[in-house]
Design a protein that fits this description.
single chain; alpha/beta; Rossmann fold; 6-stranded parallel beta sheet; 3-stranded parallel beta sheet; 44% helix; methionine biosynthesis; THF_DH/CycHdrlase_CS; THF_DH/CycHdrlase_cat_dom; oxidoreductase
């Protein structure tokens, strides 16, 4: 068996075409351009690359990207205040704090300074809770992108056993909740799971999100399983790709699988946020009827 590639670049291109159309309609209707603000702390080369890619995609779909670069030595308080200013800025529709931030900064405090209505990257506790309870809100961008990629290939999830390897609050945990909402049976594992090989071997769907290159060995993969590799380090994913591809039915490449879907989901949620903001403004402008 040789796995079919889950082509994130092709699927993301289709999503971005839809976003471009929606942005054009939004500009005609409201007379302004949606804005995504990106906050980057420090000089990490990979983070700069990711933010530049996101800015390029914003330009491609007709959005504005506002880039805020902060010195690595700033305090948590300074970062939180900056994000709160963006949250209160009526011209900003979405806010992205590029992960990771320097070790001395309380990243969770910074995430929580993002207004839920502008949390288009789905990193706040509010977004996680709304997603988990299926009450709207914004999905974490990478998990949301993974689900969109699986849907694009009509991969059934109901009744399947999904194993998520990874437990981060912005990737592993939320993707498990999204899979659960689609009636998959979900097992969470991580790098310290004692019987990781056995758990993976039972999975119909494997989502590798541990951030450890080639942690998942090819021989662990159940024949016919779907393998989604959300890892990325030096162009190597969390899965031993060549060996896994000989056993899986579908597999994502690294790069070119999950990464493009993350950016597409981020921008799709930004235009959604922009529309919600305009609807809220219109509703607040309607005078209350006399009681």
């Amino acid at each position: 068996m040789t796995a079919q590639i889950l082509d994130g670049r092709a699927v993301a291109a289709g999503i971005l075409d839809d976003v471009k159309h929606d942005v054009g309609e939004f500009i005609k209707e409201y007379g302004r351009v949606p804005v995504l603000a990106t906050v980057l702390v420090g000089d990490d080369p990979a983070s700069h690359t990711y933010v530049r890619m996101k800015a390029n995609r914003c330009r491609d779909v007709g959005m504005n990207s506002r880039r805020i670069e902060l010195d690595a030595s700033i305090t948590t308080e300074t970062l939180v205040n900056q994000i709160r200013e963006l949250s209160e800025d009526p011209e900003v529709d979405g806010i992205l704090l590029q992960h990771p931030v320097p070790d001395h900064i309380d990243e969770r405090a910074a995430f929580e300074a993002i207004a839920p209505s502008k949390d288009v990257d789905g990193v706040t506790r509010t977004s996680f809770a709304m997603m988990a309870f299926d009450e709207g809100g914004f999905a974490s961008a990478t998990p949301g992108g993974i689900m969109a990629l699986l849907d694009a290939y009509d991969i059934p999830l109901a009744g399947k056993h999904a194993v998520v390897v990874g437990r981060s609050p912005i990737l592993g945990k939320p993707v498990g909740m999204l899979l659960l909402a689609r009636d998959a049976t979900v097992t969470y594992c991580h790098s310290r799971t004692a019987d990781l090989a056995e758990q993976v071997a039972r999975a119909d769907v494997v989502v590798a999100a541990a951030g450890r290159p080639e942690l998942i060995r090819g021989e662990w993969i159940k024949p016919g399983a779907v393998v989604v590799d959300a890892g990325y380090a030096d162009n190597r994913g969390d899965v031993e790709f060549e060996a896994a591809a000989e056993r899986a039915s579908y597999i994502t490449p690294v790069p070119g699988g999950v990464g493009p879907m993350t950016i597409a989901t981020l921008l799709a949620q930004t235009i959604r946020a922009a529309r919600a903001h305009e609807t809220a403004r219109q509703n607040s402008a309607i005078p209350a009827r006399n009681q």
